[in-house]
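Can't paste images in this forum, so I'm doing it all in text. The chain is below; anyone willing to post the predicted structure tokens underneath?
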Amino acid sequence: MSLLAWIGIFAAWSLFATWVLRWGGAAWMEGWKSLAFVDSWGSLWDEAQIKLYFLCLWIVYGLWFLAGLFVPAWRGLP
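Text version of the structure:
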């Protein structure tokens, strides 16, 4: 994967995560709508739990993004 595509994918994910964490996305996702974004067990979560889930994902993806900047072989999915 090219560096530009790698940066673009992470930027899109960051924008989505920011919507969930700061701009009301977690409140919108509560209930059955979270099935598309979290999983079947996510439909039982409240807004704070959805925010925590996306924050943890953002941290993991951020570390993977940084690693992929320096080691291009790590950019591909396993």
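The helical segments are 3-22, 25-29, 47-70. The longest helix spans residues 47-70.
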